[in-house]
């Protein structure tokens, strides 16, 4: 199902953070949400997950308003991974991942075989199976980040919304996580991720939503959006954009854009 943001506006602390956001995010594709600091990227993702109520406009999953979905159904449909997510109980890592299955189970019901299999798959995909019995607060920051992604993957949502999912990860695991997100999209589900690294965005994104000052600068297929002109307009830097051998984009920042008269 498509995730549609229709004339979305968000006001926080009397400041308009998002204004007039209209875009359709498509399933089966990875959409990278890009923009400079303060552009509203995290706010957009939290609003799409119904964690912030918009001042104007709606977020729809298919033809249904996300805000009016039953919370348990919404949790089954949309998985959200915030940046700097924490765990408040020092429980075993496998138990943290299993929390992703709670929306699929009746209250107080024990996990079924499908729940256990989903947890196993999620931990294998994030290379955290060997951490299963470790208390989560004993993990490194990068290990914890992978465990929290596994928790979202275990829920098998129709849409996975991730805010800076690569933060704190070493380069190898950054590539591994991007591969896992692409795999989720290839399964027909939707993935929207906030990224700051243009190299990673060019590698993983099928579509790009480029924000500036709370508005859509441009959106569409990655090759059409991630052009030197568009990236200069958004970030104020010169960027070299090339195709790699796999068909993705290699976007290399060169330096600050020169001021023009």
From TrEMBL:
GO molecular function, one term: ATP binding
Keywords in alphabetical order: ATP-binding, Nucleotide-binding, Translocase, Transport
Origin: domain of life: Bacteria
PROSITE patterns the UniProt entry points to: ABC_TRANSPORTER_1, ABC_TRANSPORTER_2
UniProt signal peptide: none
Function: Part of the ABC transporter complex HmuTUV involved in hemin import. Responsible for energy coupling to the transport system.
PANTHER family to which the protein is assigned, alphabetical: HEMIN IMPORT ATP-BINDING PROTEIN HMUV (PTHR42794)
Name of the protein: ABC transporter ATP-binding protein
């Amino acid at each position: 199902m498509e995730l549609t943001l229709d004339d979305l506006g968000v006001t926080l602390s009397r400041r308009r953070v998002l204004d007039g956001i209209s875009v359709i995010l498509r399933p089966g594709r990875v959409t990278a949400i890009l923009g400079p600091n303060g552009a509203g990227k995290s706010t957009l993702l939290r609003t799409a997950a119904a964690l912030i109520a918009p001042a104007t406009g709606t977020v729809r999953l298919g033809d249904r308003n996300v805000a009016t979905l039953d919370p348990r159904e919404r949790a089954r449909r949309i998985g959200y991974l915030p940046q700097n997510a924490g765990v408040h109980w020092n429980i075993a890592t496998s138990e943290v991942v299993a929390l992703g299955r709670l929306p699929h189970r009746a209250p107080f019901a024990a996990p079924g075989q499908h729940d256990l299999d989903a947890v196993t798959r999620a931990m294998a995909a994030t290379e955290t199976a060997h951490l299963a019995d470790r208390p989560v607060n004993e993990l490194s920051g990068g290990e914890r980040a992978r465990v929290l992604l596994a928790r979202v993957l275990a829920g098998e949502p129709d849409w996975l919304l991730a805010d800076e999912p690569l933060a704190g990860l070493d380069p190898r695991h950054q590539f591994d996580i991007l591969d896992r997100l692409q795999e989720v999209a290839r399964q027909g589900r939707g993935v929207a991720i906030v990224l700051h690294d243009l190299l990673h965005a060019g590698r993983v994104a099928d579509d790009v939503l480029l924000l500036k000052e709370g508005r859509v600068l441009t959106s569409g297929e990655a090759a059409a959006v991630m052009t030197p002109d568009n990236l200069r307009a958004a970030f104020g830097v010169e960027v070299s954009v090339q195709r790699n051998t796999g068909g993705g984009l290699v976007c290399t920042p060169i330096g600050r854009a020169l001021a023009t008269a």
